[in-house]
Specification:
Blueprint (H helix, E strand, L loop, with lengths): L1 E2 L4 E11 L2 E10 L6 H4 L2 E7 L6 E8 L10 E10 L2 E9 L7 E8 L8 E2 L21 E9 L4 E9 L9 E8 L6 E2 L12 E9 L2 E8 L4 E7 L7 E5 L6 E7 L5 E10 L8 E7 L2 E6 L2 E6 L7 E4 L7 E7 L4 E6 L4 E6 L4 E4 L6 E2 L12 E6 L2 E6 L2 E7 L15 E8 L10
Amino acid sequence: MRYAPPGFCVNDFDLYEKDGMYHLLHLQGPLVYPFDATILETTYGHATSPDLINWTTQAPVFEISHKDNFDNSAVWTMRVLEHHGKGYMFYTGVAREPSFYQSIGLVTCENLATPRFQRYTEKPILTTDTKWYQTTGKLAWRDPFVVRDERHDQWLMFIAAKEKDVPEDRNGCIAIATSDDLLTWQCGSPLITPRKYSEMECPVYFTHDNKHCLLVSISDDSSIHLFEASDLHGPYTETGIIAPKHCYAPRLIRDKDNRLLLVHTVPRKYKSKNDGDLMRGYISQPKEVSWIDNQCKLTWYDGCDSCLEKVDWIEDGNYVVEMIPDSTEFTVELSSSRDCLKIIGKDGTMVVVNSTSGLTFSYGINTSSVPKSIKLLCFNEYLEVYINSIFTGMGIDYLLPHEIKSVRQTNVSTRLSRINLRYENIDPK
């Protein structure tokens, strides 16, 4: 269940709701490998959806400057918000000279229901402060995420940056800046400095039970990490990884029942071939953000069920298979050495998601207990595994139904559903 506009791959994005319609703004580029984001991500794509699942492609809403400006080479991750009825989009501008330098820009629009953005200024509103942050070598001053700081009556911007005078393989950090009016910004010292990651990208802020939470995508392991604090301004403590490898650059949004959902990017195989290289890809279907035993987990979103049609069996195509084992007969084994999932019955019967899929598993799943349900979602070369509705594993490889050894015995119920989506995109080969 993924989205990308016809003929393009998708990278980082933002989501917002306006007048009952969800809007997706995203980085996009041609379906090529290798992909050079500094010269190929030149426009923001736009799509709309009534339910966060079925998307309709719209015209692009923004592009690089064709002048000798700070954003004349590429435009990267953005953050959209509404203030006093007006739309503000903070974005990353990349300049050809000097050396693909990154800065933060601002554009505005009169109505986010029909976004037509105009540059607030031809100049960046925020550049790297050399007092605290690296400005040479491998740069990072991007991915602005702006939130309201009510206690201090100001706005706060989280930024992906690199700490000065720290080795490049561990100087990734999260910077902050503050503003009284969204227009003029003052840079501050680094907020989060683990000094063990080279890149800390796409910060996303939310709150839960009086806790301040920040999701950060870590390029070193291609995973989404969670940081928590008792105050918006920190200090933040890293508390875990919330999704398997290759889930990246998330955004959070409320559905129409006010449930908190997470959408992320997933890669794809070049030319949709199993032996193709991983490249930039798609937007995933929503997952619900759940707190289980005081830990943040991603779980199956039942809003996706409207796309499922129960069938007896299929030999190819996109599908979901769900198995409900007898609670006394089955256990789950995750093999870290082979990256495979085994669902094992006491009589030796087994369901195997084979190791050639490069399956990876998230942390904090108790595999010693017997699962109540196992759900496999297969969409083109994309595979997701849910154990007890918790998003547990992901693979990027074709997995046809006949490649899953189906358990056929009285104490196991197997349900198979075909995925029917009205995405405008049909994956180009």
